[in-house]
Amino acid sequence: MTISTHVLDTGQGRPAAGVRVELFAGDEPVGSGVTGADGRISDLAGGQTLGPGRYRLVFSDPPSRFFRRVELEIEIEDSDRHYHVPLLVSPYSCASYRGS
Q: What is the separation of C-alpha 20 from the centre of its chain, rounded to a whole number of angstroms?
């Protein structure tokens, strides 16, 4: 199973490069990365095998002067699937959804 992400700066209408994202299983760090020029990290666990359970994605310093840190907790049931968790952020709001 892989967990990927994509950060979009909807205030500027472009991908958000340089956002640090950490992945935790409970309180245990299991991976991290920094978004590239396309705003993406293709595998937050760096190739590790992850099983079912609760995971937390922590986005540090997204491109907003108000939101300095965004945390999302997700529940993984099927470890044979790919999970994509995008973050959309602007100066006035942030949102996420389960991507494909």
A: 9
Find out whether 71 and 64 touch, Cβ atoms under 8 Å: no
User: 5: closest CA among 70, 90, 80, 78?
Assistant: 70
Number of other CB atoms surrounding residue 11 within 10 Å: 16
Q: Give the per-residue pLDDT at 64.
A: 86
pLDDT tens profile 28-72: 999 999 999 999 999 999 988 899 999 999 999 888 889 999 999
Q: How far apart are CA 44 and CA 53, in angstroms?
A: 15
| Rounded-to-integer distance, Cα 44 and Cα 35, Å | 10
Spell out the domains of the chain, with CATH numbers in brackets: 2-89 (2.60.40.180)
The residue assigned the tokens 């602007």 is 90
